[in-house]
Amino acid sequence: MKEEIIIAGFGGQGVLSMGKILAYSGVMQDLEVSWMPSYGPEMRGGTANVTVILSDSRISSPILHEFDTAIILNQQSMDKFEEQVKPGGILLYDGNGITRHPERKDINIYRVDAAEEAAKMHSTKTFNMIVLGAYLKINEVVKMDNVLKGLKSSLPERHHHLLPLNEKAITRGMEIVSEVEV
Question: What residue spans of the chain are helical by DSSP H?
Answer without folding.
Answer: 15-28, 75-81, 114-120, 127-138, 144-154, 163-176
